[in-house]
Every structure is written in C-alpha cells, then in structure tokens.
Write a structure and sequence with these properties.
Shape: globular
Bound molecules: flavin-adenine dinucleotide
Strand content: 25-35%
Number of strands: 20
Radius of gyration: 21 Å
Distance between the termini: 26 Å
Order of helices and strands: EHEEHHEEEEHEEEEEHEEEEHHEEEEHHH
C-alpha cells in the first residue's frame, strides 16, 4: 500500500482532533467530519495526567491547557470524616520534568483549545456531518457523506467514540458494551481555599474526590456501586448527588452540599463500561483510535490520554514509512500493550472497589500503572 497524502477523520473529539493536528505536521491533507453541528461537549471536568500533559505538549497545546486549567504534584487521601490518611506525591512523566505531574480542566475549555488548534493547523473541518457509505479498494477509500458530498482518501481514521457507527460497520463481531457495576457522578463547584490539589475521601463502597480545574473552580466526582444499570431520572440527579455526599462527614464536604443543588453544578451521571477491541484496529485503509477501540473506566484518569497518544503515534508512523501496512503494524505494536494496561488495570481497580477487596492490591495496581504510564510512548 502506498504513502498517505490525504486522510479523513470521522469524529472531532479529543482523539480525532489530536490525530488531525499531528497529521498536518507530517504535511498530510486532513478533512475532519464531526456529527454535532456546534462541536459541543458536555460540561464536566477531566483529569489530565502527567503522561497526558506530555502528549499535549507534543500536540502543542500544553501551555494553554496549564494556563486555563489546574495542576498539582500530589494527592491527599482522607477518611470520610476528613482525617488525612496520607499525601501521595505523583511522579513526572519521563522526559517531562518541566511539566507538572498532573492537572485537570473543564472539558469545554479543552475542546475550545483543541478545536482552535485543529483549525489553525489547516484541517478542513465540517460540522453536522457524518459518513453515509465507505467503499475501499487497493489504493483508497471512496466516502459518501450524509449531505451527499463525496471524497476519496488514502486513509480513513475512525474516532467517533465508544458508540462508534464505524466500528459497528467494520467490526460487527464486537459485542455491545457491558455495564461494569459502578457509576460516576460529577459536579462543578467553586473551589474552597483549602483545596489546592486533588483530595479523595473514602467511605464504605463509595469514594468522593475533588480536582481543581481552574483558579476558581473544581470538579467533584463520586463513584457509586450499583449492581444493575437502572435508569435514574435526570431531574433527580442533584438530590441523588447531595444524598451521596452526606456520608462524608468532613465539614468541608458537608458545607458543599447546597452547591450540588444549584444548576451551576451541572450534575452528570455515567454508568461505567469498557471496551478493548482486539488489534489490529484497521480493516484495510480504515483504522480506529481512541474510545472507538479502547475505552476505559476512569480509575486511572487516562482514557483521553491513551487516545491522544494513539493519534500522535499513528501520525509519527505514517510520517516514517512509505508503506501504509508497515506504518499500521508499527502503530499497533506501539499502542496495544499501553491501551490494554489502562483498560485492564482500571477494571481491576473498579472490581476491587465494588467487592470491598484488598486495599493494598488497589494501591499497588495504582502505583504500578502510574509508573508504567510515565514511560515514553
Ligand atoms: C465518567 C468518565 C470520566 C472520565 N474521566 C477521564 C479523565 O479524568 N481523564 C481522561 O484522560 N479520560 C477520562 N475519561 C475518558 C475520556 O472521556 C475518553 O477516553 C475520551 O473523551 C475519548 O475521546 P475520543 O475522541 O476517542 O471519543 P469522544 O470524546 O467520544 O469523541 C467522539 C466524537 O465523535 C463524534 N461522533 C460520534 N459519532 C459520529 C459520527 N457517526 N460521525 C461523525 N462524528 C461522530 C462525537 O460527537 C464526538 O465529538 C472519562 C470517561 C468517563 C466515562
């Protein structure tokens, strides 16, 4: 298969945008189609781990992310009543001593930074659009879009997320995602002065945490075990969230309960599931990255990070080899184990939490995973 000059990316999420920016740096022409007409993203916070900050430095947006987000070098762990159990220092990602070991930002702010960088890189972005049909031959892929337009590409990258239409088309054997027995609640709140870095509180079968996302705000998350994936009426989310905060008797948490009931809290609930499609992640000239093929539960806060890294590695390998198959083989060789580790270890952490399992094992998996992810990609 010959060199790649023109690429279509389907999906303008974090993974798709970063891949697009990196491909432009290789001189490759990139069209990106995004199904939402206004490129919207929901208003929760997202943790940007050290390795993810390193990846965002490669993409060229880390300064802006650090300027508009929050960052820190340690996490406080507390009992439900606020007693400090320990403060754990986080390691720097290798080759990134100049960056903080971790950070967080509001998702719409990150999307704003990346969408501007995508357009500035010369990517042709079309919103409110998706593909209708794909037909590939030896030399390229013919695409018909939902507005009837047509295009021919050397490579198509699927980055349309965990409910990917492209994956359903090309990998029909992949089973629908299965609920894992835990859900995550998130809220946005003003940051009390004492919250200068993430803090986590532990109660029986439930964990609450806060991460600063800017100078003025933080996001709060609560992981809750629920054996079945029941429907929770959205109008009740603020009351449910406030109820889940009550067992955390730390006065700092109690004082924040009224905040959960305000509309600005923008409470969000996600039942958790994961997905790891066996490699290779391509069918001929169509390859998938990000949540499309490797979607994790958030226990290592690395889902977006591995998607960004995959975009970087794919662009690097396409730029390095004159032959597409060699580039894709190298891409899979470099990405499989790292994505597998994040998904597998995050699921193990989740199961230990649900089963009330061994805390030492939980701490060990956490430590080892963070250590592995600091390694170069
Ligand atoms: C509760 C929760 C908390 C998380 N916390 C963290 C965290 O703290 N840190 C972290 O690194 N990761 C976290 N993650 C994971 C992270 O959110 C995802 O890994 C990341 O958003 C995936 O990016 P993506 O670009 O692959 O997919 P998405 O973000 O899903 O983007 C897909 C894009 O494709 C578009 N699209 C969909 N279908 C089509 C179509 N047919 N045609 C065109 N466009 C389409 C969508 O509109 C969207 O813009 C968390 C996940 C969950 C569920």
């Amino acid at each position: 298969m010959a060199l790649v000059n023109k690429v279509l990316i389907i999906g303008g999420g974090i993974g798709g945008m970063c891949a697009a920016i990196q491909l432009r740096k290789q001189g490759i022409a990139v069209d990106l189609v995004e199904i939402t007409p206004k490129w919207t993203v929901y208003g929760a916070g997202i943790t940007i781990s050290g390795p993810t900050l390193r990846a965002l430095r490669t993409v060229g947006v880390v300064d802006e992310v650090l300027r508009r987000g929050g960052h820190w070098s340690a996490i406080d762990f507390c009992a439900a009543d606020g007693t400090l159990l320990n403060t754990t220092a986080l390691p720097h990602a290798e080759g990134a001593d100049d960056l903080p070991p971790s950070g967080a930002i509001m998702r719409p702010v990150l999307a704003d930074i990346l969408s501007h960088a995508t357009r500035d890189a010369g990517v042709q972005v079309r919103l409110g659009l998706t593909f209708q049909t794909l037909a590939q031959d030896e030399d390229g892929v013919d695409v018909v879009f939902s507005d009837g337009a047509r295009g021919r590409y050397d490579l198509v990258i699927g980055a349309d997320g965990v409910n990917s239409k492209l994956r359903a088309l090309l990998f029909p054997e992949v089973k629908p995602l299965e609920y894992i027995g835990q859900g995550v609640w998130r809220a946005v709140m003003p940051r009390p002065a004492e919250i200068v870095r993430p803090r986590m509180w532990f109660a029986q079968h439930i964990k609450l945490g806060v991460n600063p996302v800017s100078k003025s705000h933080m996001y709060m998350f609560i992981t809750e075990d629920r054996p079945t994936k029941e429907h929770i009426d959205e109008s009740t989310w603020p009351q449910v969230f406030a109820g889940l905060m009550r067992p955390f008797t730390d006065p700092l948490v109690q004082a924040l309960i009224p905040r959960a009931l305000e509309p600005e809290a923008a409470i969000d609930y996600r039942p958790l599931a994961n997905l790891l499609v066996p490699a290779p992640w391509n069918r001929g000239r169509v390859v998938m990255i990000g949540d499309t093929v490797a979607a994790t539960t958030p226990h290592l806060a690395s889902g977006a990070g591995i998607g960004i890294e995959s975009g970087i590695v794919l662009a690097e390998e396409l730029g390095r080899h004159g032959d597409l198959q060699t580039a894709l083989d190298r891409f899979h060789a470099r990405r499989w184990e790292r994505c597998r580790l994040v998904i597998h270890n995050s699921e193990r952490l989740c199961r230990i939490e649900i089963e009330g399992g061994d805390k030492q094992e939980h701490a060990r998996i956490m430590r080892e995973s963070i250590g592995a992810l600091t390694q170069p990609i």
